[in-house]
Amino acid sequence: MRAHLQNMAPQLSSFISIALLFAVAFANFGQQAHGSVVEFSYAGLRGPANWGNLNPKFSTCSSGKLQSPINIIKNEAVENKSLTPLTRVYKRGNAILVNNGFNIGLRYEGNCGVLIVDGKNYTFKQMHWHSPSEHHIDGVQYAAELHLVHLSDSGAIAVVSMLYELGDADPFISKITNKLGDLAKDAYAGNEEAHIPIGPLDNKLLRKNTRKYYRYIGSITSPPCTENVIWNVLGKVRTISKEQVEALKAPLGADYKQNSRPLQSLNGRKVELYNEFSD
Ligand SMILES: *[C@@H]1O[C@H](CO)[C@@H](O)[C@H](O)[C@H]1NC(C)=O
Ligand SMILES: *[C@@H]1O[C@H](CO)[C@@H](O)[C@H](O)[C@H]1NC(C)=O
C-alpha cells in the first residue's frame, strides 16, 4: 500500500500542477479588460459545454430541458389564433451603453415601457446583442441577434428577439455607433466601469415589424440559463452592416467576440406562430 502511494506521488504532483495551471487559465479567461469578472466564456474550458459545471448556480445550463436558443423550423411551427400582437409601449428613455463583459447592451433608467403578453405587463429592462445569431430559422444562422428583455412584477421574463442579416446599416444601431467606439477605447484603457450614458434614445425603431413572431418557452441564453422565459422571435429579419457587427464586437475580449450559445434540444417543445396576415 505504502509503495503504491509512493508510486502515485509524482502523478499526484503533476495533477496539482495541472490544476493550478487551470486555475490561472480560468482567472485569465474570466478577467475582462474593464475589470469585471465573467465566470463563463464562449470558448475553451469555460465554454458553453461546461457552463453547467462552473458554478452550482449554473446547473440548469446542463440539466434544463427548456433551454435556448433553438432552431425554429417554420413548417413545424403551429399557428395559434389565440396569440395576440406583441403590444409594446416603449417610451423615449435615457439609455446607458454597457459592456457586460460577455456582450454589449443598453440599460434604461426609470420606466421605459412595457411589453404586454397575454394581458400581463412585463417592464422593459435592457437589451443586448449577440453575434452571430443564437436562434436559427430553418437551419440558417444570421449575422446578429438583439434581445429585448422584459420582467414582470413577479419576476417572469419575456424576451423579444430580432434577427439581422448582413446588408444595410440598422438605423437604431447607427445612433450608437460612435459610442460603441468610445466603449471599445474605454475597455482598452482598463476603466473599472465601462458604462457610457447616451441620453434619450427613441425606441420607436424597435417597435416595427411585429406582425409575425414565433413563441416558445425557453431560457436565458447565458448562465444561469434560467428557464420559463417567454420567447418571441420576430419573423421579419432586419439588416445590419458588417461595420456595425464589428463595432458590437470591438469592446469585447477575445473569448466573447463570438457570443452565441450553441443550439439546444427542443425536448418535445412546440413553437407557436402568430401571423397577423393569415386568415
Ligand atoms: C395559444 O395561445 C394561448 C395564449 O397565449 C395559450 O393560452 C394557448 O395555450 C396556446 N395554444 C397552444 C395550442 O399552444
Ligand atoms: C400595463 O401597461 C399599460 C401600458 O403602459 C398600462 O396602461 C396599464 O395600466 C398597465 N397595467 C398594469 C396592471 O400595470
From TrEMBL:
CDD domains noted in UniProt: alpha_CA_prokaryotic_like
Major localisation: plastid
Annotated Alpha-carbonic anhydrase domain residues: 38-275
Enzyme Commission designation: 4.2.1.1
Family annotation (SMART domains): Carb_anhydrase (SM01057)
Top enzyme category: lyase
Keywords: Lyase, Metal-binding, Signal, Zinc
Catalytic activity: hydrogencarbonate + H(+) = CO2 + H2O
Residues spanning the signal sequence: 1-35
GO MF annotations, alphabetized: carbonate dehydratase activity; zinc ion binding
PANTHER family from the UniProt entry: ALPHA CARBONIC ANHYDRASE 1, CHLOROPLASTIC, CARBONIC ANHYDRASE
Family (UniProt): Belongs to the alpha-class carbonic anhydrase family.
Function recorded in the entry: Reversible hydration of carbon dioxide.
Name the record gives this protein: Carbonic anhydrase
